[in-house]
Write a structure and sequence with these properties.
The complex is a heterodimer.
Chain A (H helix, E strand, L loop, with lengths): L1 H21 L5 H27 L4 H11 L1 H19 L2 H6 L4 H31 L8 H25 L6 H15 L11 H8 L4 H11 L4 H36 L6
Helix pairs in contact in A: 1-6, 2-3, 2-6, 3-6, 3-10, 4-6, 4-7, 4-8, 6-7, 7-10, 7-11, 10-11
Chain B lengths: L1 H19 L2 H22 L6 H24 L2 H8 L2 H6 L4 H17 L2 H12 L8 H28 L1 H9 L1 H8 L10 H7 L3 H11 L9 H32 L7
Helix pairs in contact in B: 1-6, 2-3, 2-7, 3-6, 3-7, 3-8, 6-8, 8-9, 8-12, 8-13, 12-13
The chains are: A mainly alpha, B mainly alpha.
Amino acid sequence: MNRVLDEAAVFARSTFLQYKALFQWATVRGYVAYKVLLPVTQILFFVELGVYATGPKNALYFALGNAMQLTANAGIFGVIATVANERQFGTLPILLGSPANRLVTFLSRAIVNVIDGIATVVIGLVVSVVLFGLDLQHGNLLLLGLCVLIISLTTAGLGLMFGSIGLVMRDAIIIANVVYYLLLILCGINFPVSRLPGALQVLSYSLPLTRGVQAARDAAGGASLQQVAGLLAGELAVGLVWAFGGYMLFRLLEGYARRGGLQEAF
Amino acid sequence: MSSLARAAFSSFRVSTRLRVVSPYAYLNWLVFPLLFAAVGLYVLSRPGAPASHLTYGLLGGGLIGFWSITYLDGGNGIQDERWNGTLEQIFAVPTPLWVILLGKIAGSLLFGITAFIPTVAFAYFGFHALLPHIDAPRFAISLGVLSFSFLAIAITLTPLFALWRWAFQMLNGFELGVYVLCGFMFPVAIIAPWAQGIAGGLAPTWATRALYAATTTSGPHDYVAWWLAAIALSLGYMVCAVFLYRLVERHARISGDLALA
């Protein structure tokens, strides 16, 4: 029992310190720029693009899809930055030298970003309601909230996977940029997954967001939990697989980085 | 004069050599344009879509890449020196600062304009997309005017980013807003009237309008008015830049706090 409590304390401490030291938007200007301006302009850009291409009737399809994809802003950028910033600040060798449970340390990197991802989606939904008249009156709001929570968790799972690469790579934030914008193509955010080539559709369904965004669209249309349970279960399973893969990669690359002294390379 | 040209060319050469080994340069030159071109082409190239839609998908990715390089790479001309620890040397040399920056920004623009190559190739091989009609001379002049407007913006942003770091954060966060206001991937005419008013104050908006007009026979073709609007606005930015450079000089030479800003 004491062991569990000790690990819980390490988890809580680690989560708090992640926020204090590594949450890279913890300034008013930084938060406004990347957590308000970026989401608002992303939704504006893709909704206008969609309206130009398909007409105003489809504005909500684009608005909702992009609002959901904003979870990746925190889940991908935020989580990858927790490792990348450890390297930049010179604390990565100390982290790897500590006796703390690796799984606890690893998972604690995602928590603040999951919460932040939910906050970003709320901003995105408010923008969609105010600017594009997204009507959620007939939507299943509780279910939509559950979708947002699950998508935030699963994108953080993907972020943990790519964050691990930061143990051996100097410019891991480049990966964050590529993955974030690739999700716009692969996950049915702005056009149906069925328009992608076959191989990319397989990749699409092995990524977070694809099922989650579909479930969120259904929830906004008034679907019940039973109707989207399969999609949400699939979304959770995909997120877990990515997080587990990330943990395995973290352990693998930790040893590799230690042997090669890569954790200090900058 | 020849010594200034030599200094500008050296600055161009050194910055280009640094650029070609930087992974961030390729992120902006290759990855972003391709990703945005892919989304644009998928959304805009539905069966039965007019040819003008495809043109926006085809050129939009390149425009986004060109702009990204301009403001990220070109606009950080002084910031890069600060990060590399060479700021004091740049100010201590007898060559005027603007000559060094002109060489660096010219390198950025040259690199940025080639962002059209991968996106047009991607559109052709991935979507069999070709420009349906092109008025070559007017297209070339419009691209030249667009490049001049980007040059003016980079010259203006360089001291701005050096003086106030948050300005870079804000513009970086607002990047997709610039795509909207400048009409890189769809016409500005479809956005809200108040936003069109803001867009009218941006030089690239007019140059982009002329560029797309040169790819179609339909719609108005007031090239001269659009080119003049873009050039006049660009010159206006440069006038503002003169005051900003004076402020930079003051911080660098008199108060000596530019490296700490």
